[in-house]
Design brief:
128 residues, alpha/beta
Length: 128
């Protein structure tokens, strides 16, 4: 019997929270991805946004002079453990928060079982 592996997409905010607090809920989700309990999928757009968010001064200030090393290591881990979706076509319009469209597009493109987010705009898609 063949079983499909659960596939998940993390929103940028989940990665940021995992980076800032490895012991918190997002950190635990990231640990599960590293333990390959499910297949995490990322895109170039998601990695680019994450890199930009991590470079914000309020995040950099929490890590001092070793920030670049920590950030590079974190991004390398993501590239190692996640599957990179090479082709993500824009199919989802979200006028409420257009900057979130690429994450939903990624989830659709890889037929993700889960889109993990703390973003209220994205969470409202489930209940709205």
């Amino acid at each position: 019997m063949t079983t499909s592996r659960i596939t998940a997409v993390f929103d940028t905010n989940v990665f940021v929270q995992a980076f800032l607090n490895p012991a918190g809920p997002s950190g635990v989700a990231w640990k599960c991805a590293r333990e390959e309990l499910f297949q995490l999928v990322v895109s170039v757009a998601l990695l680019d946004e994450l890199s930009g968010v991590l470079d914000r001064s309020y995040i950099r200030s929490k890590f001092g002079p070793h920030f670049d090393r920590w950030k590079d290591h974190f991004l390398a881990e993501i590239r190692f453990y996640a599957r990179l979706a090479n082709s993500v076509v824009h199919v989802f319009d979200f006028p409420r928060d257009p900057k979130d469209e690429f994450v939903v597009d990624l989830a659709i493109a890889c037929q993700a079982d889960f889109l993990v987010s703390k973003d209220t705009d994205l969470l409202d898609l489930v209940t709205g």
